[in-house]
Design brief:
Elements lengths: L6 H8 L6 E4 L3 H12 L4 E4 L3 H10 L16 E4 L2 H6 L3 E4 L3 H8 L10 E4 L4 E2 L4 E2 H8 L7 E5 L4 H5 L4 E7 L2 H11 L4 E6 L2 H24 L3 H22 L9 H12 L4 H10 L4 H7 L6 H12 L7 H10 L5 H8 L5
Length: about 350
């Protein structure tokens, strides 16, 4: 990522008494973040693409399509289906648009966003650029590195909506910025930690979706918990090798942002990537599985991205290779996993 000399500017923004925050995206993660931020007495801008959904939320205080049981404090919300209006009024943008649609939504902007602080809560890659979101913002939209941050788990939006104890990791190279955003997201049921590993946490967020698809495929085929534990054990070691080769810095791969996020995505009943993989393991085609799911399985795009990136490193990644062979080469899941199990320990 490109560095910038704009650090004094961002520190000036951080020192503002009330940073103006906007969430872009009306899906489950966007809704969960809105719930947290408004409960913390923040006035928030919210971009929801569909104007019908905007009207529904304003009238009933619920998102009609995602986390519909969550009560939203609409008095603290300024909701619009005009992305330019929402962006123009914000200092901080939190991206919660599925990665498959992020580029097309940002193309609607008639203004630059290089002067904004941007945190990504998107857990995948941008298909058009095959870059993780932070790299896409930096390389394609010229957002300075110090103005980019990441919000990662381990957490599912569904449990946040139910106010079950959850943990979020806030990553930024600017320590004060990470602390500022972490404070905004901390509640009685949300604990926050900070990190300076933007690249590592975001790559981990991408990779864990691939491993969750692998776990789902295994479940769909008929493998049990014993094999799942071996698969996840190998997955965290594979993740460590991959991230170390792509971006070397000191990190503990056993921390919640890496291992914790992998485990919740690989095992949870709320995991869309695991559900997608389970359908593939049961014999669904990729297209059929995608059509049946209401939400995007980010790991599908992440698999292709990881495969392309690894062409430059040749890291040993048998699980990623196996998922790629199934999803993109149409290989039989059972035959692929029979070969994979010989490479695991």
């Amino acid at each position: 990522m490109k560095q910038s000399s704009n650090t004094p500017g961002i520190r000036h923004l951080i020192l503002k008494s009330r940073l103006k925050i906007a969430v872009l995206g009306g899906g489950s993660w966007g809704t969960a973040l809105i719930k947290i931020l408004t409960q913390n007495k923040r006035n928030i801008g919210w971009y929801i693409r569909n104007p019908i959904n905007v009207d529904f939320v304003e009238k009933y205080g619920h998102n009609p399509n995602y986390l519909s049981a969550a009560n939203l404090k609409t008095k603290r919300l300024k909701i619009s289906s005009d992305i330019n209006q929402v962006v123009s009024e914000a200092d901080v943008l939190i991206l919660a648009i599925p990665s498959a649609f992020l580029s097309s939504e940002l193309e609607k902007l008639d203004q630059t966003i290089g002067d904004k602080i941007i945190f990504s809560a998107v857990k995948g890659v941008v298909p058009e650029s095959m870059l993780i979101v932070g790299e896409h913002l930096n390389k394609k939209l010229n957002v300075p590195l110090e103005k980019i941050g990441v919000i990662v788990g381990p957490s599912h939006a569904e449990e946040i909506a139910m106010e079950r104890l959850s943990y979020l990791t806030i990553a930024s190279v600017e320590n004060k910025l990470a602390k500022t955003i972490a404070a905004m997201l901390k509640t009685s049921y949300i604990r926050t930690t900070i990190s300076n590993d933007i690249m590592g946490t975001e790559y981990a967020s991408m990779l864990k979706n691939i491993y969750a698809i692998a776990a789902g495929i295994a479940h769909g085929i008929g493998y049990g918990d014993n094999f799942q534990s071996v698969l996840m054990s190998n997955a965290i070691r594979e993740m460590k090798r991959f991230i170390k080769d792509v971006y070397k810095m000191k990190r503990n791969i056993n921390n919640s942002a890496y291992l914790g996020d992998l485990l919740v995505t690989g095992y949870s009943v709320f995991s869309r990537n695991r559900s997608f993989g389970s359908m593939i393991g049961k014999g669904y085609s990729v297209k059929a599985a995608q059509m049946e799911m209401r939400m995007v399985a980010e790991g599908y795009y992440g698999t292709q991205c990881a495969k392309m990136i690894n062409q430059n490193y040749s890291t040993r990644v048998p699980i990623i290779d196996s998922v790629f062979n199934i999803l993109y080469l149409g290989k039989n899941p059972e035959k692929v996993f029979k070969k994979l199990i010989k490479k695991l320990d």
